[in-house]
Amino acid sequence: MTLNTTSTPTLTPPPGKRLVSLDFMRGLIMVLLALESTELYIHVRQSQSRGSGFDMLMGQFFHNQWQGLHFWDLIQPAFMFMAGVAMAYSLVKQKSNGHSYRQRSTKVLKRCALLLFWGLFKRIYQPDWLALDALDVTDILTQLAFTTLIAFALFELRIRSQVISCVLILIITECLYRFCTAAGFDQGYTDGHNFGNYVDWWLLGQKSSGYVFINWLPTSVHTIAGTIIGKLLMRGKQPLRWMVFSGISLLAVGYGLDLSAVTPIIKPIATSAFVLASLGYCLILLACCYGWVDRLGHKKGLLFFKVVGMNSIFIYLLCDIVGRHWLNGYVEMITRPVLALLKFSDNGIAIIASLITFALEWSLCYFLYRKKIFFKL
Fold it and tell me: pLDDT tens per residue, the chain (377 residues)?
């Protein structure tokens, strides 16, 4: 398939108008990630008795171990999907400003290089973070570097051709896990013995950690789908019904593959069933945000999420590098003696410390927002 730069109808981003629903959705996802980095979900769950209804609800804020799908397993797909939507707006704006294809591709390559760097650098707290057999090649940013390249390579194609490309990517993924085997890595979708684990061992000398490097291939479908939605929105077609219908259809196919034992839903190796089901949820979530915010005009009270969503990469790195490995403990060290005097329980102190940490991180984002300082890759 060749790239035809004239095959896509003219797209025009609305002048001076942001897709506020995307800012809101991105902010919502980043707030959830920031709260997770403070270990709030762990502390809240520990405060409940095991097996209770609330305990089962909080279980959705943790990754499912292998087969199956929890709410928290949708965070990375949503991140990559939203990146695709934003990428479509950015590329069309660059083109309308007269940037050549070479200029646009150079900018994308630089962005991907930075994504790759920060995805690896965020493990700097570990002494072996640069060792080949310890590289974190499954982080959201690391994976996004590769999915962005694929989505960019296919961006100028017609939407129908992009959809066909997504189908082919998932078929290739199915074939790799079903038919490409090696000694000790010939058990299809079994943890530690699948094709993805073989690539990690052959390429990096890494043993199984559940998640695998080549997840960027199937999950590129999330980013490509995001660019498709971006195109539809810029055409002014307001594809609300299309997003809902497509989302429900993808959920039916994804869960159908899992329930029929054709292909299980497994996030750590991004099976085709997982990609389809998670993409279905992403489409429905964006449709809800778009319908509520951009179509119905409910834009009041979104500042809480907007200030985080417009600095998503910054808050992600801040919480994961500085927050998780320094600020969390520092805040608890200060608050624990005070709250202990007030007779708070250990778990109560931990919950309050997590909320204070998040408040400090959000306040920094608010300061940057007021100063119009946005960190972009």
Answer: 333 434 445 566 554 467 889 999 999 999 999 999 999 999 999 887 787 888 889 999 999 889 999 999 999 999 999 999 999 999 999 999 999 999 999 999 999 999 999 998 888 888 888 888 888 889 999 999 999 999 999 999 999 999 999 999 999 999 999 998 888 888 889 998 999 999 999 998 887 778 999 999 999 999 999 999 999 998 876 688 889 999 999 999 999 999 999 999 999 999 999 999 999 999 999 999 999 998 888 888 899 999 998 899 999 999 999 999 899 999 999 999 999 999 899 999 999 999 999 999 999 999 999 999 988 87
**Number of domain units in the chain:** 1
377 within domain boundaries: no
Q: Any alpha helices (H) in the chain, and if so which ranges?
A: 20-37, 40-46, 53-58, 75-96, 101-121, 140-154, 159-179, 195-204, 216-234, 240-259, 272-289, 303-309, 312-317, 328-341, 346-370
Distance, in Å, from the CA atom of 278 to the CA atom of 225, rounded to the nearest integer, reads 12
Q: Is residue 339 part of a domain?
A: yes
376 assigned to some structural domain: no
Domain around 250: 20-370
